[in-house]
Every structure is written in structure tokens, then in C-alpha cells.
């Protein structure tokens, strides 16, 4: 029942939001990411870009998948611990086959740590040779839940500011896992707000 009603309720809320964009102009084909705690507004804001989303296979992931499917997303299901690389490769193939234009990822999901990048978005951007953008999302009126990601539920009619920041994925060290983690930790500190 929850999976049937949730998309309608979330869409009704999201339609009241007043979203404004700033920063870099995002082309029609790109890899986009935003923090897990900002996902409600993030997913809604980019839903018209012919997107495919990476979504975990958890119970919460099932709820999210029902909302994203309602919004027209294609889905690649997996997580960092369970078939995550397979899901990422499926998403990349979907972009290659031109069934979708934009890959959308929460780079600190599905379980954190909060505001610490994982490598999936960077690997995808390099393999697809697409620009990678971090969307910095500020909801001006919100309720913050007591969850690991400090999940934000925007209040109806809230103003939402989204700033698109181009991230240079070319410097990402593909082969060396230790170098990858060091690179991601440095970048995470830049966006941890």
C-alpha cells in the first residue's frame, strides 16, 4: 500500500517547491550527483532529463524506486555491498544505448558515511566520457530527520536553491584503490556543508 500512495504524496509535495538553479550550465548528457540527505528535491529537480538512477536493493530502495518510476526514471538496482558494480555497468550501458541521457547518483548512499564520496559516479563519468556535476542543494524550509544522512523533507512551498558545480573526474585514479580513496576524501571535504 505504501509503495502505491508514496509516489502520489511525494509528487504533490514536490510540485509546490520553488526551485531556482545557479552555477554551471548542465548539458543534456551528464552524470549528476547530490548527497543522499538531499535526494527528495534532487531526484525531483532532474526528472525531465531522460535519467537513469542507481537505487539500492533495500526496503527503502524499493520505496524510492516506486517514486522514481512514477517520475519516469529508468532504474539500475544495486548497492555498494550487493551487486553495485553490476548495477553501475547496467546504467552505463543504458546511457551508451541512448535509452537515457543522464546518470543520477547519490554518491554517499545508500548507507554512508554521510558526505563521503564513493567511486561509482567518477568511474561512470570517465567510462562514459561525460561531464560530472555535483548539485549543491539548499532547501530553505525543511524538516531534518534523525537518520544517518540527516534526510531533509522540504516544507510545502519552500524555496530550493540548486547550484551545479562541474567536478573534474579526469584526475580520478582509476587503477589504485588507495589513491582513489585519498582523492575522494579530499573532494568530500570540499563539498561537506
Structure commentary:
It is built from 6 helices and 9 strands; from the N terminus they run H-E-E-H-E-H-E-H-E-H-E-E-E-E-H. It has 193 residues and is an alpha/beta fold. Strands 1-9-6-2-5-3-4 form a 7-stranded mixed sheet, with helices on both faces. A two-stranded antiparallel sheet has the order 7-8. Helix 1 crosses helix 3 and helix 4 (84-96) packs parallel to helix 5. The termini are far apart.
What is the topological layout?
Elements lengths: L1 H13 L3 E6 L6 E4 L5 H7 L5 E5 L3 H12 L3 E4 L6 H13 L5 E4 L14 H9 L3 E8 L2 E3 L7 E3 L4 E9 L9 H15 L2
Helix pairs in contact: 1-3, 4-5
Radius of gyration: 16 Å
Q: Main sheet, how many strands, which sense, barrel?
A: 7 strands, mixed
Backbone structural class: alpha/beta
Determine the number of helices (DSSP H or I, runs of at least 4 residues).
Answer: 6
Low-confidence stretches: none
What is the spatial order of strands in the main beta sheet? Answer: 1-9-6-2-5-3-4
What number of domains?
1
Give the ordered list of helices and strands: HEEHEHEHEHEEEEH
Which whole number gives the mean pLDDT? 92
Helix fraction?
25-40%
Shape designation = globular
- The span between the termini is 36 Å
Q: Give the assembly state of these chains.
A: single chain
β-strand percent reads 15-25%
Strands, total number: 9
